[in-house]
Amino acid sequence: MGRINSPFSTILFDVDNTLYDAECGVETEMSRRIDEFVSDYLGVTKDESRALRAEYLPVYGTTLRWLQVCHNMTDTGRYMNIVHPVNLEDYIDRNHQLREMLQSLTQNLVVFTNGPEFHARRVLKTLGIEDLFTRFFALEHMGFQGKPCESAYKLVLDSLKIKAEETLFLDDKEVNLDAFHRMGGFGLLVGQGSATGRYPQIRTILELKDYLEQEVLE
């Protein structure tokens, strides 16, 4: 697979539902675990847990941050370990096509996730691509104020000493692309879900090279 150039020097990658198919079951399992945790922690039903999470997630970005700010939760390690499954091989296969495609890119490849670093590394190791990424920016590195807080994006850009306008950011949620766009960066939506059309969209991560080639031609 040939290597190509593009207007971007760096590509930031979300992990969950971006580097693997959103329908594989990981998100469903994590949501089940989070609902169960919130239910136990707050003493509410699982239906109430889901409703509360839906209400506060847009405000705080993650359920963890909501629990920290509004419910004085301090044992983040316990939360992280409980809600992130260990048996990722039951959901995700090693992806040789993905590895080949990523290896063909000339950009600096960086992980930017609202999950913990151990989970991101576990996902990438399962996919067989962990060694292709130069840096990992995970929720704990951002003081647990992750996407879509603008401070999270600024931390990543400042740490890498790069400019937003030279950077492509891939995520499966438009709200996470919005803040980066306001900073002058370029967002690419990944997944087959409904979208507003504010950003270019690829159905799967394997279409990334085709998108970059199109950008070069244009």
Would you give an account of this structure?
The chain is α/β, with parallel strands linked by helices. The chain is 45% helix and 11% strand. The chain contains 9 helices and 6 strands, in the order E-H-H-H-H-H-E-H-E-H-E-H-E-E-H. The chain has helices at 26-42, 46-60, 63-71, 76-83, 96-103, 117-127, 150-160, 174-182, 208-217; strands at 10-13, 108-112, 135-137, 167-171, 186-190, 201-202. Strands 3-2-1-4-5-6 form a 6-stranded parallel sheet, with helices on one face. Strand 4 (167-171), helix 8 (174-182) and strand 5 (186-190) form a beta-alpha-beta unit. Helix 1 crosses helix 2. The longest helix is centred in the N-terminal third of the chain and has 17 residues, at 26-42. It is globular. The two termini are 21 Å apart. The mean pLDDT is 93.
Shape: globular
What strand line-up does the widest sheet have? 3-2-1-4-5-6
Low-confidence stretches: none
What's the total number of strands? 6
Q: Which structural class do you get from the secondary structure elements?
A: alpha/beta
- What is the succession of H and E elements? EHHHHHEHEHEHEEH
Overall average residue pLDDT: 93
Query: How many DSSP H or I helices?
Result: 9
